[in-house]
Prior knowledge:
Layout: H1 12-23, E1 62-70, E2 77-85, E3 91-99, E4 102-113, E5 116-128, E6 131-140, E7 145-150, E8 153-158, E9 163-165, H2 169-178, E10 184-190, E11 193-209, E12 212-221, E13 230-236, E14 242-250, E15 253-259
Parallel strand pairs: 9-10
Antiparallel strand pairs: 1-2, 1-15, 2-3, 3-4, 4-5, 5-6, 6-7, 7-8, 10-11, 11-12, 12-13, 13-14, 14-15
Amino acid sequence: MVRRSEYKDINWNGKISAALHALSLSLTLTFAMSPLAAAEATVAVEKTSLGQNKTAPPIKAFSQSFKLTSSGVPFSIKAERRLRVDADGNWHMKVSADNWLGEITEDTIFSWDECIPQSSYYGYKRVGLGKERRAEVHLNRGTGEARVVKAKKENVYPITTATTDKLSQTLALQCMLSRGDMALELDIADERGLDRIQYRREGEEWLKTPAGKIRAVKLERVRDTDSDRRTLLWFARDHDYSLVQMIQEEDGKQHTLVIRSLSH
């Protein structure tokens, strides 16, 4: 166990915050698949009043747990991710990680449109060493705009009808893989603006994880050839393509998020 006194001169909170932010926590991350009570029942989406069948969501609610390790940080951090649906049919996902240094959380609210989470809200909060940082993105489908609130400043930019947020993008990828999509492209909104993100398949691998040996489809985010950043994701084929590992490489450092337990 790491004692505070041993590392009091090192800004571990900043290092951990940077690692979590690099991973977007989100990647968007998906693990420890123990279903919540809400997952036991089919979530109804009324199609019309003509007696059509109700449609189940492409991904069920879950409660997940991950382990985060980062270059230069001599201890791991536990991260939690939860997906639930409320009585009005709105989906909520929250990812959080904390220790004695501070806390970071990300939240999103959305509805499903086939495989795309139609986000209406995304927000993050980082607290530590007496400081707090927040940002919120409100997505208005009616006006086709996203409104960003950060550091008491506001900004507005246009979005598309298929825009999702960076926390929900792994849910979209999970759904797209499960239905066999080959083109993996998404419009992602965050506090900086709208970005078109593309992933490519890198084959399949067997991973050794705290949850056991898992057969996974490996994806890599497509970046410019001169980029020094690399993002890799692994989705479990035999577990509804749940995300089970993510690696972010940048500035000579590697941040790894890996599933701790996986169950249905």
